[in-house]
Amino acid sequence: MKNNGLNKDRLFPSVEHMAIDAQLKHLYDFLYHATSRMVHFSPNILLRMGWYKKAGPTVFSTQNFYKYYDQFNKFYSTYLLLEFCNSFKKQMGFENDILKEFKEIKKLLLNDAFYPELVTFEELNIKRPSDLFMNFLKELLKLNP
User: Fold this and answer.
1) With contact defined as beta carbons under 8 Å apart, do 17 and 6 qualify?
2) Residue by residue, what is the 3-state secondary structure of 43-102?
């Protein structure tokens, strides 16, 4: 660790430090923010679990967001697995055929997936943009990665 400029007195560097060294700090910050606010009490998280209809009481339940969390976990777990495989392909000794599969999965994930946002349109009481507009934004992001 000392030879790599890391603190030799620690058994392992922090995850944040490893993210900085791997030039993945932006991804670390995003996922840290997304996940830490889900596991610690926050009035925002409590309020996002309350849904109401114009005629009827507000219902607070974790069930109100299970689809969102399901999509979030599926998308980002796949994304992280692909990033891991790409970063450590030499060390893992992946064959070319599996690397092609990883590329195909990533292509499907990034082209066809819904990117779960940290603050949803529903939380902001804003109507979700149309699929046409969201597809336009995806194409625009491809031009400016």
Assistant:
1) yes
2) HHHHHHCEECCCCCCCEECHHHHHHHHHHHHHHHHHHHHHHHHHHCHHHHCCCHHHHHHH
Which helix (H) or strand (E) element contains residue 137?
helix 131-143
Domain of 20?
Answer: 1-40
Give the pLDDT of residue 131.
75
User: In this structure, what DSSP letter does residue 2 have?
Assistant: G
Series of mean pLDDT values for 10-residue runs along the chain (145 residues): 68 84 88 79 74 74 78 87 87 90 87 71 74 73 61
Let me know whether 92 and 113 are in one domain: yes
Same domain, yes or no: 30 and 70: no
Give residue 100's pLDDT: 92
> Which of 119, 124, 31 is closest to 83 using CA atoms?
31
- Residue 121 gets which letter from DSSP? T
**Total structural domains in the chain?**
2
Whether residues 58 and 9 share a domain: the answer is no
CA triple 130-83-131, angle to 5 deg = 5
Q: Which residue bears the tokens 């507009």?
A: 133
